[in-house]
Amino acid sequence: MPFIQLPACNTHYEQQGHGDTPIVFLHGNFGSWHYWQDFLQHLPQGYRAYAPDFRGCGDSEAPAAGYDIETLSEDILQFVNHLQLDTFHLVGHSLGGAVAQQLAGHIPERIISLTLVAPAPAGGLMRVQQLPAADSWFSAENIFQFLGQINIKRQIISASIKKSMPGLVKRHNYLNQAVDDALKMDPKAFSGFLATLKSWTGAELLKHFNFPVLIIYGDLDSVIPLQALKDMQQKISHCRLHIMRNIGHSPQLEQPREFNKLLSAFICGNEMELNTEQIIHAKRLGLLTKLQLIFKRLLHNNN
Could you tell me which residues are beta bridge partners of residue 88? Predict the structure, then answer.
């Protein structure tokens, strides 16, 4: 169980593979690295994957503050810097999709490709605007703690996950792990994540996306409105929106085989395109070098 001591907290992560090209996975609200476990087990050759737990989630520490998207993005920047990942593929789900957008918009030169899985839209997530304020008696943190005191937290969370991820109803192992992840989340993270989703927008970041982008969406998603993602797609130069059928908010858990195939094809395809560009660039440099040598010889002969 590896950890990295970041300035704000001790961060747990999982790593898979030993290839040259890194992929960084960011989980969503209520989640942990486990949301990517199936893909990590089927990682394509030539890649290595890193899946950290956000602060207050999984096995990472839970500091007193810093649960906004901007700070989470800074955590991940420090994480990839510590691992010396100069360039990498970035994948984010739900809240992690917002963090991925925030990070990619600030370091676009280091992003090979960006995959957003049912992400919080760059235009803002309107459905959380009506939630009670953090200092209210009915705040998310207070309700979360109250449910635990009356011993029905697990039942409530399980029912909520089944509603937002209908594909997990018959996938009991995945469902139980998702519930365990949600129960493990610190109440400060529970409240802080909802608060930041109420206020965060990333529309200005999209103009910096000069890399391939794939948005994956389940047509039964009751959390993220499809139109908001279509609006995002129109504002990104190289963006494809793929809709998975009969899937809710977590395609990677609800239909892992189809999801793994889709993500692998996107990442590996962009890697091939990148390699082709590098080859062409190398050939151009080689041709330029030859021309420079010929020019020098001509000058020498004339002298």
Answer: 111
Q: What angle do CA 122, 127, 133 make, to 5 degrees?
A: 105
Bridge-partner residues for 239, per DSSP?
213
Which residue would you say has higher pLDDT here, 136 or 232? 232
**Count of structural domains within the chain:** 2
Residues 212 and 293 reside in one and the same domain: no
Structural domain including 287 reads: 277-302
State what percent of residues in the chain have pLDDT above 90: 74
Domain at 139, CATH number? 3.40.50.1820
Digit-coded pLDDT (tens) for 168-203: 999 999 999 999 999 999 989 988 998 899 999 999
> Do 237 and 296 fall within a single domain?
no
Please report the pLDDT score of residue 147 as a whole number.
54
Same domain, 131 and 255: yes
The predicted pLDDT at position 68 comes to 97
The answer to whether residues 227 and 169 belong to one domain is yes
Which structure tokens are listed for 271? 């890697």
Answer whether residue 218 shows pLDDT above 80.
Answer: yes
Are 23 and 168 part of one and the same domain?
A: yes
| Residues 111, 258 within the same domain | yes
Name the pLDDT band for 243 (thresholds 50, 70, 90).
very high
Same domain, 268 and 282: no
